[in-house]
Amino acid sequence: MRKAFIAAIVALGIVSAAPQAFADGRQCRGTIGAVTVDSIIVPEGAFCTLDGTRVRGNVDVQADATLVATGVTVGGNVSGDEAAAVTISGAAVRANVQLTDGGMASLADSRVRGNAVFAGNVGAVDASRNTILGSLQADKNTGGVTIADNRIGNNLQCSENDPAPTGGGNMVRGSKSDQCAEL
Q1: Angle, alpha carbons 149-154-75 (nearest 5°)
Q2: What's the whole-number mean pLDDT along residues 132-154?
Q3: Model's pTM, two decimal places?
């Protein structure tokens, strides 16, 4: 009798598969404060402020979108491809920060367990006073790059930035190479 009941419920579509964790991110247009969410998507062209927000998964900043994240905790990655601007300060990111082919990008006073990558950005790029357990890489940025007073667990790599990066005071366990050799 019980098997027939379960079969009938499934046949009627009353029971569905459990939703996949972090499958759909919460869209951010405006401000999200000190709450916990699964993941964040800043939609194309939107402006989002995260203030003390805890994100279990990833933060994805889409084309022409702007993110200002202060005091956030991110369990996954922060990524932006063609974002207008991304500013991250006082954050803890469990994985990587990857900001590519966008406008302005800033990572300051934060802790990143993985790598930080800035590539192909046309606005100013700033990485200052961070602890990055992996590598920091800045390539092909054209709006000016400042890399200062970071603690980097692996390598500091910079190439093809125009103008060349400025800064200094970086403590690097691995190697400093190319345009960042003296920083």
Answers
A1: 85
A2: 98
A3: 0.86
